[in-house]
Amino acid sequence: MQCHEVDYKILGDDMQIVEVELDPGETVVAEAGAMNYMEDGISFEARMGDGSEAGAGLLGKLMGAGKRALTGASIFMTHFTNQGGGKKCVAFAAPYPGKIIPVNMAMMGNELICQKDAFLCAAYGTKIGIAFTKRLGAGFFGGEGFILQSLKGDGMAFIHVGGTVVEKQLNNETLRVDTGCIAAFTTGIDYSIERAGGLKSMFFGGEGLFLATLRGTGTVYLQSLPFSRMADRILQHAPSVGGSRRGEGSVLGALGGLIDGD
Q1: pLDDT tens digits, 199-238
Q2: Which of 7, 139, 176, 208 would suit a FRET pair with 250, their CA atoms being 20 to 30 Å apart?
Q3: pTM of this prediction?
Q4: Domain count, the chain
Q5: CA 113, CA 184: separation in Å to the nearest integer?
Q6: Please, what sign has the CA dihedral across residues 97, 102, 108, 114?
C-alpha cells in the first residue's frame, strides 16, 4: 500500500507539536489521544488498526490488535481524514518532554524499528506492527524488553523520544549505548547486549551492568532522557504514602516543609 503524501511542520522546542497538512481525501493515522487540535473539515474515526489489515477480515484485525496490546499501546488507532474542499491541518502533541522526529520512510529502506512507545502518527498506508529482539540477552537487559515497534511504509512517520535526540550514521561501525537510550534504528543495524567492562566497573561505575551494542550500516536515533529514567527521578523525590517529604538534602527539605506549613 502506497502511503499518502502529507506535509508537516514541527512547532515548539521541548514540548513539541507536529502539525500535519492534509489535502482533500488524505488521512493520517495516530495513537489514541495524541491529537491536540484540528481544523474544520477534518473528520476522525477510531479503528482497530492502521488500515493495512483492511482485507484481512475480523481475525486479521484481532491479531493486529493483539500485537499492539503487547507493546502496551491502545488496540485502537485514530484515523483523521480531510473531508473538506481545501488543505486542512491536524496537530499531534508529544506525551512528555522531548523531540518529535520526522522520518521519511522511503529514505530509511521502508522500515524503522523503534522503542515500543515511540510512535506518534504517520501517513495513511504506514504499517505499525511489532518486532521481537533477536537475542535473549537484549530482551532481558536491553532496557526495551523483547517487544519493539516496527514501522513499514514509504511515507512520513513521526516518532517521539525523550530529551535531546542524536542521529548517528553507522557505516559498518560499532556504537555502545546506555541501555534505554536507543530510540530507533534501521534494519541494517544489529542490536545486542554486552557486559559493561570489568566487575568493578559493572557494580560501581554507575552505568549499569550491561551496555547496548549497535553494529552495522544504517541510521540510529538516540535519546538523552528515556521516560523510565525521568519517571524514576520524579518518584525518588515525590512524597511517600505517609506524606513525608523526600527532597534533596534532609535539613533543607525539613526547613522547606516548615515554611510550607507541612
Answers
A1: 554 454 445 567 788 899 999 999 988 776 666 667 777 7
A2: 208
A3: 0.76
A4: 1
A5: 5
A6: positive
